[in-house]
Amino acid sequence: MASSTPAQARWAAFARDTNETKIQIALNLDGGAFPPETDPRLLGGSDHASQSSKSQTISINTGIGFLDHMLHALSKHGGWSLAIACKGDLHIDDHHTAEDVCIALGSAFHQALGIPAGIKRFGYAYAPLDEALSRAVVDISNRPHASIDLGLKREKIGDLSCEMIPHCMESFAQAARITLHVDCLKGFNDHHRAESAFKALAIAIREAISKVAGKEGEVPSTKGTLSV
Q: Which PROSITE patterns has this protein been placed in (predicted)?
């Protein structure tokens, strides 16, 4: 397990094993390389949710294709390097896998960010996808809360239950200890509604955790702390 201080790389890598899911994860909030202790089995994947560039490495395999697609969008537009592998009890349903992956991602985010000093703290974004438009507002608050309204009407998108899509965001927010509000404002295609929401969330988080020149070491809170 790895965590960071503001002067170090903002990254984390660990395994999360339960009777329901076995997860390996590595995250670098600023893109680039993964921590040295990253499980080598996470790297070199050829899944559809894999992408490598000079600034980012993304490899996601949860066993649920649409969840992979959403986490790919979140990491790509958030500017992260992210690798996730999960073996879950999909013979039951998608719930444990989707929930546990997002808990693991939130935990990795919280560890990687470390002490929330020298950052903007707040971020917001709008993101369209064709006819759909979503808004996300984020507070790196250490006060876990999620308010999600995506207006999804289908039972499933691919193999991911639509009821799990807001729950994934809620699970991430709880483990990351952040406040987020995500709303899909318009759109008739549920795939577009969900994807625009994840893209808006990615951009809002990227803004909220961005470093502010001249504010190094300063905690953006009137309390003087965001750790309690």
A: IGP_DEHYDRATASE_1, IGP_DEHYDRATASE_2
Do 196 and 187 form a contact (C-beta atoms < 8 A)? yes
Give first-to-last CA distance, the chain, whole Å.
Answer: 22
Q: Which residues contact 11 (CB under 8 A, 6 or more apart)?
A: 2, 4, 26, 27, 28, 29, 34, 35, 112
Whether 32 and 10 have beta carbons less than 8 Å apart is answered as no
Topology of domain 11-208, CATH? Ribosomal Protein S5; domain 2 (3.30.230)
Cα 112 from Cα 151, distance rounded (Å): 32
Nearest-CA neighbor of 178 among 205, 226, 140?
Answer: 140
Return the structure tokens found at 196. Answer: 């625009």
pLDDT tens digits for 119-167? 999 999 999 999 999 999 999 999 999 999 999 999 999 999 999 999 9
- The residue extents of the domains of the chain are 11-208
The type of residue at 187 is: G
